[in-house]
Design brief:
alpha/beta, 6-stranded parallel sheet, 57% helix, 10% strand
Length: 286
């Protein structure tokens, strides 16, 4: 009896692993397609920039109208190609996320561990030590800002009632350019974290645009930490900010304590966001 039971369990386990391996193969193929389309998209962007530069040059040098028209057409062709590449890149990115989600759901259903999930795993009770105080300097040494993935949404509640500048990325009020600027500037002024809560939505493109409304290229400066170098943040101060934000109120020692914390309840955030951050996953008790 015991032998038959063990044989049956082994058979079930083998079938389960076969399903998981088959889905894992789909993930590998989808990843290859995603990476290929991302490379093609990058090339299309570069080609368009090259063609625009050529057009600007011939116009600036007052070249014959025929040549100007030819170079203008190359710009239009490059724009069309770029739009086509964007569509393909979006489709492959969506498919990649979809098959990864399907694999994780399958592993959950079969009771298998998901070893492919990116990020260190932490418990909610470890947030203060690991995220806020960065004991061991793991976040600092990574050179990146932290991304906390928490499907339970408890981290959002914890950080909302901690001494942080909390920004709900789904709130048009929170994301209003002047309010967003003050949230960032206040975090730097007082040396405390600015929290960007993405909820369960992919909002990084919208967030980047919102920061770029304040100052073009600002989001990249934040993510690279260039904004904290040589008091570059001073350019964000406006005359009507009042005495509280007068330049002499800022101290570099406080500014260096500033931290951007991005949180999401989306179990599978955008690939580019994962790659540009130090990822933590909050363990969910079942």
């Amino acid at each position: 009896f015991n032998a038959r039971k063990a044989e049956k369990e082994a058979s079930i386990k083998a079938q389960s692993m076969a399903k998981i391996n088959e889905k894992a193969s789909e993930v590998t193929s989808a990843k290859e397609a995603y990476e290929r389309d991302q490379k093609n998209l990058k090339k299309a962007h570069q080609e368009l920039e090259k063609r625009i530069h050529e057009y600007d040059t011939v116009v600036g040098e007052a070249k014959p109208e025929e040549l100007c028209n030819i170079t203008l057409q190359t710009v239009k062709d490059a724009e069309k190609t770029l739009e086509e590449m964007k569509v393909l890149a979006d489709e492959s990115a969506d498919n990649f996320r979809s098959v990864k989600l399907a694999l994780r759901n399958l592993k959950d259903a079969e009771g298998a561990e998901d070893e492919d999930e990116v990020g260190i795993r932490i418990e909610l009770k470890e947030l203060d030590e690991v995220l806020m105080r960065d004991v061991g300097n793991k976040i600092r040494d990574s050179g990146k800002w932290p991304l906390v993935i928490d499907v339970s949404k408890q981290v959002s509640v914890f950080l909302r009632y901690t001494d942080t500048n909390y920004v709900n990325a789904c709130s048009s009020t929170n994301m209003e350019p002047n309010k967003l600027r003050r949230s960032l500037l206040g975090g730097i002024r007082y040396g405390k974290p600015m929290v960007l809560d993405l909820m369960d939505v992919d909002l990084m493109d919208e967030i980047e645009r919102a920061f770029d409304v304040i100052e073009f290229g600002l989001f990249d400066e934040i993510m690279s930490k260039g904004l904290l170098q040589n008091e570059a943040y001073m350019k964000l101060i406006r005359k009507d900010d009042g005495e509280e934000y007068h330049p002499n109120k800022f101290q570099d020692s406080r500014a260096q304590k500033f931290k951007l914390i991005i949180i999401t309840s989306n179990r599978d955030p955008k690939e580019s966001l994962v790659e540009s951050t130090y990822v933590m996953r909050v363990k969910v008790k079942k």
